[in-house]
Amino acid sequence: MTNALSGKKIGQSARGGADHAWFTSYLLSNISGGIISPLIPLFVVLYLHSNVEYVGIVSALSSAASVPALIFWGNLSDKLKKRKIFVVIGFVGSFLSLLLIIVSKTLGMYILTLVIFQFVAVASTPVATLLILESTVEKKWPNVMSTFNIFSYIGLIAGLSVGLVLMSVYANISYSLLPYLYLVAAFIYLAAGISAIFLLPEPVKKLQRNTGAMANIFSLRTTEKIRYFPNYVIHIISSRKNNGTSKLAQRTKIYIFYTGFLMFAFQLFFVPFPVFMIDKLKGTQDEIFIMYLLNDFASAIAFIFSGRLLNSIGIAKTLSIALFSRVGILFSAMILAIFFGSLSFSLYLGIAIYAVMGLFWSFISISWSTSISKLALPENRGKAIGYYNSFLGIGQIISGVAAGLLALYFGYGVTFALAAITVLSGAALLIRFQYRMKDIITNSQTKRVGSV
């Protein structure tokens, strides 16, 4: 559709950019994601009266659904050369699938609901960044994608705030409110889908994933929890053979393995810790929401200046600080679980520990993404990022089950100690390798830190 006066397509600015009013749709979807992000441990433990083992199983199974879904929706989008329809499918499908929460009275039905939700929800994930790249001139990609990331963080934090307010206002309803929080999120997803229908134009230009300029764009995960997969994934592992694409360099494979191993280690803490807060420290639903809110807020604040720190002191030093700081925090969680769990202020210590963990994720994520992009061969950067995202997901899925079983049979203190030792081991290996590859990363580094 063309403006008769300017001759430009509707939605295109005079500077060759695009009208990004459709960011509102993703803002709404992230509000829904924020509302439901703390609900798995709350729903499983408080509403279904189950334990930490099943929190891990539910997290793992719902997360696992996203892996084939990303491949399916991404490849289908590329095959059909369409973007908008997949955003609408993702948002409206999320609305419809979350309505099943009304009949989710058993653990099996709850898992089925989350698996269906996760499968349809990620339909919007592989196309989100493509929409930006296909509707914006190349020189503006980093700035526009940074704005998109900020919108996403605002949505997550706003959603957690909405959940906290609802929990506080309807505190007298107790645990029976939890299904209705899913319903609130469902209707916000519906609003996101409707807004996408009216606000989101189908890009005229189409980019081929993993080739050309796309091979030089790296993906940044701004959240750690795979079950609410970030909306910024560009590269996926294709279900078809990539003709003409060379094998990954050995150095790239090693780095990807280390990042997947570290993500496995992180989740040994993240999966059982909310249950520990509920089960041992007697945290309320409000306090769990506050804990998640502070974690995401800390990560959002760090994201603002993480790129500048990387450019100032380098990737290796930034990554060392972030990873070894997390080791210290994990040992603090172990000490809290073993020695200070009965103290009156232990709950507040737990909230602080979870919040500070979020502070370092932006530094880690940007460091990893940048390093993978630099270590990969120019012709298969997209493939490398696809495997990187997948290995992070695999690490989280495996760890979901392992963390639940460890906490159930060995206790929270032992689980957090194992998390700390595993992160320490992985960090030592990765940092050593990072310094060995420093010349390669530094010599090829461009000022793209902070983009997606």
Structure in words:
This protein has 452 residues and is mostly helical. The chain folds into 2 domains: 15-236, Growth Hormone, Chain: A, CATH 1.20.1250.20; 245-445, MFS general substrate transporter like domains (Growth Hormone, Chain: A, Up-down Bundle). It has 18 helices and no strands. α1 crosses α8 and α2 packs across α3. It starts with 22 loop residues before the first helix and ends in a 9-residue tail after the last helix.
Instruction: Write the CATH homologous superfamily of the largest domain.
Output: MFS general substrate transporter like domains
CATH architecture of the largest domain: Up-down Bundle
Helical stretch count?
Answer: 18
Beta-strand content bin:
under 5%
Essential attributes:
Growth Hormone, Chain: A, 0% strand, 452 residues, 18 helices
Topology (elements, then pairings):
Layout: H1 23-36, H2 39-47, H3 52-64, H4 66-80, H5 84-98, H6 107-121, H7 125-135, H8 141-169, H9 178-199, H10 250-270, H11 273-279, H12 285-313, H13 315-339, H14 346-359, H15 361-375, H16 381-410, H17 412-436, H18 438-443
Helix pairs in contact: 1-8, 1-9, 2-3, 3-6, 3-16, 4-6, 5-6, 5-7, 5-9, 8-12, 10-15, 10-16, 10-17, 12-13, 12-14, 12-15, 13-14, 13-15, 13-17, 15-16, 16-17
Give a summary of the structure in a few sentences.
Helix content is 70%, strand content 0%. It is an all-alpha fold and 452 residues long.
